[in-house]
Design goal:
Elements: H1 9-13, H2 16-30, E1 34-39, H3 44-47, E2 52-54, H4 56-63, E3 71-75, H5 78-87, E4 93-95, H6 104-107, H7 111-124, E5 130-135, H8 140-148, E6 152-154, H9 159-169, E7 172-176, H10 179-188, E8 196-199, H11 210-215, E9 218-221, H12 233-242, E10 247-250, H13 256-261, E11 264-265, H14 268-276, E12 283-287, H15 290-299, E13 304-307, H16 323-334, H17 346-362
Parallel strand pairs: 1-2, 1-3, 3-4, 5-6, 5-7, 7-9, 8-9, 10-11, 10-12, 12-13
Bound molecules: iron/sulfur cluster.
Iron/sulfur cluster binds near residues 104 and 317.
Length: about 375
């Protein structure tokens, strides 16, 4: 995990009005040389400055539509900024306003541990073809790993088609880092739970016997999102009792039992589209990050939208991108200095891009 050195104290003391003026002025002065990307889970006092909003992959792709921008400021988390650097032009520099903005799920799959798992499985089962799939919420090194091993990247929006493709390619699927997305998707595609195992990187053979591993169709990495994994079936039961007729909509990073108890499951973009296309008067309980749910509720006053989880969790790492850090970062760029640049080395970029292109061809 990268750590942000403290930004000058002056920024932390700025009243919000001055902060707003300075961010707007820096943005205007940088003009076309700057693109600001804002992830859906980003706080309101940051996302309001974004040129584009979306999920991680959509943002990285949208930034490609602004080749004139020398600087891409990614208001998201570290793996997203890496993705933008992989897809950016050579002259473009990607900046993460706070280096401590990581993703706890992505950090659960360390590339060395995944390589160790891969070596153990291929040594144990030499006659079986193993296909590696990584969720886009992962380090660039893991995207490169799947690129090198004929695997692929997937997003929560295209997981169905990519997992279906991967299952056709070999005997066994190794899915990381999010066990919930992997389990929910495979189950939806007809793989029974008994054919899925969890790999715990802290245990010998991931905590499984050689026989279990030989028989399994899918091996799921023991990773999860600290936000979505807190959304439980009890929350679904509670909201149904409190709001008769409510439609429960959840993200596939939620646990299996929660998704099974819900009415629909899909990516952030899917959730947004469901709400946008619903008739006035529809009542929703949405299980995903609180900033997105609150924003949808404000934008659609003609519908009733509540958060499914009673503690309404926010993504703490994403929240580290503050207006103060954004202001500091833009003023540094204006002064000719590039702070917090995120770069991916050429070899990793090459293989990660192969994996991303493979995904785009198939989704
Ligand atoms: S919401 Fe979860 S998966 Fe998304 S960035 Fe935050 S910790 Fe990572």
């Amino acid at each position: 995990m990268l750590l942000q050195t403290p930004i000058p104290q002056d920024y932390l003391r700025l009243p919000s009005g001055s902060l707003d003026d300075r961010i707007s002025a820096a943005k205007a002065a940088l003009g076309d040389r700057l693109t600001i990307l804002g992830h859906h889970y980003q706080r309101d006092d940051v996302i309001r400055y974004a040129d584009f909003t979306g999920d991680s992959l959509k943002l990285a792709q949208l930034s490609q539509s602004r080749p004139q921008a020398d600087y891409i400021v990614f208001c998201g988390v570290h793996f997203m900024a890496e993705g933008a650097d992989i897809l950016s032009q050579p002259h473009q520099q990607v900046v993460l306003p706070d280096l401590s903005a990581g993703c706890s799920m992505a950090d659960m799959a360390h590339p060395d541990d995944v390589e160790e798992c891969w070596d153990a499985l291929t040594a144990l089962l030499p006659e079986q073809t193993l296909v590696p799939l990584t969720y886009v919420n992962s380090a660039a090194r893991l995207k490169a790993f799947v690129g090198r091993h004929s695997g692929c990247v997937c997003t929560s929006g295209n997981a169905d088609s990519i997992v279906a493709w991967a299952l056709e390619q070999g005997h066994k699927l190794l899915f990381f880092p999010d066990q919930h997305l992997g389990r929910n998707t495979c189950y939806k595609l007809g793989i029974p739970l008994e054919q899925m195992l969890v790999w715990d990187p802290r245990q010998e053979l991931g905590g499984n016997s050689p026989e279990q591993l030989a028989a399994a169709r899918v091996i799921l990495w023991q990773g999860y999102c600290s936000v979505h994994s807190r959304i439980l079936p009890a929350h679904v039961a509670r909201v149904r009792a409190a709001h008769p007729g409510v439609r429960v909509l959840v993200h596939p990073e939620c646990p299996f039992e929660t998704c099974q108890a819900s009415d629909a499951m899909g990516s952030t973009e899917y959730i947004i589209k469901q709400v946008q296309s619903a008739p006035a008067g529809t009542s929703w309980a949405i299980g995903t990050e609180i900033h997105l749910v609150s924003r949808l509720a404000r934008r659609h006053p003609e519908q009733t939208i509540v958060h499914l989880d009673d503690c309404a969790c926010q993504c703490a790492t994403m929240y580290r991108i503050s207006p103060q850090h954004l202001c500091w970062c833009l003023e540094e760029l204006l002064a000719g200095r590039v702070p917090n640049r995120i770069t991916v080395d050429p070899e990793t970029t090459l293989w990660a891009k192969i994996a991303l292109d493979r995904m785009l061809e198939r989704s």
